[in-house]
Amino acid sequence: MGNSISLRPLSGTQFVLEAHGYTASIASIGASLRSLRYHGRNLIVPFDANQVRPFFRGAILAPWPNRVVDGRYTFDGIEQQLSITEPSRGHALHGLASWLDFAAVRQTSNRLVLEATVEAQPGYPHRVTLEVDFALDGEGLRTKVTAVNSGPKAAPFGVAPHPYLVAGAGRINDWTLELPARKILTVTPDRLIPLRLRDVDDSDLAAFDFRTPRTIDNTFIDHAFTGLDRDYEGNATVRVTTNGGSGVALSWDSECPWVQVHTADQTAPLTDRIGLAVEPMTCPPDAFNSGIDLNVLQPADPARASWTIRAID
């Protein structure tokens, strides 16, 4: 028994999907997309199987994405206090599912379905079962999350992924970003507490307007965006490309009216600005307090969200 335990990677059970030139490696802890390659080229910042997942790379964020300010909120007339998981800013960050060990309920060469349950606990007295469906095809890696309230009372809920997109060699300063968002949620500079929704074409916010693709350069971004331009199928798409035109795209449908974008600024040179976090969200930061676009799941009710990552040649 001892040997079998020691041989299991720290990121959990490992799964590999392959199809149409894509290879996806998925770890069971947090249903994390550990790596995604297209003909050997990284599309996201990977992490090692025997590594404690850094910076929420590839994790499923539920039952809330982003932050609950001070970890406090009131739901159904009852004040709740969540554990503070972002000590530097004093917030509850990225939900409760990111360290759950998801179990495989279906697997083929190009598809994997994982499942786990967020059990009722202090601060979140609800039970929500999560199903994460990964599928590779010619259009890239499609991910669909289905959440079902398996408890007896209504539950607040939100979800997002947390991939760091990689356009190619180098760092994000040299890459071109296309972000089709007309609105930005401004935040306090120190604790990133939401302030108000504004237009990206306001003169003092022009640095965040990437509706026309342009180089990221040294712009710092750690903001939520909305007012998304969508195609005829209702999909919004963020594209990150190199000077040569190759890169990666992340698309999502109307289930996610928000997207968090972060330039991954770190003090350590090896991890500083090596990928662009793009997180389609069903609700904005601190939605447990604001109520904006917050899903309220009734018992046995499902909520869904889906997105696709694909290579740009």
Automatic annotation (TrEMBL):
Gene3D superfamilies: 2.70.98.10. InterPro entries: Aldose_1/G6P_1-epimerase (IPR008183), Gal_mutarotase_sf_dom (IPR011013), GH-type_carb-bd (IPR014718), YihR-like (IPR037480). It holds the Pfam family Aldose_epim. Transmembrane segments: none annotated. GO terms for biological process: galactose catabolic process via UDP-galactose, Leloir pathway; glucose metabolic process. GO terms for molecular function: aldose 1-epimerase activity; carbohydrate binding. It comes from the Bacteria. Signal peptide: none annotated. This is Galactose mutarotase. It comes from Cryobacterium levicorallinum. The lineage of its organism: Bacteria, Bacillati, Actinomycetota, Actinomycetes, Micrococcales.
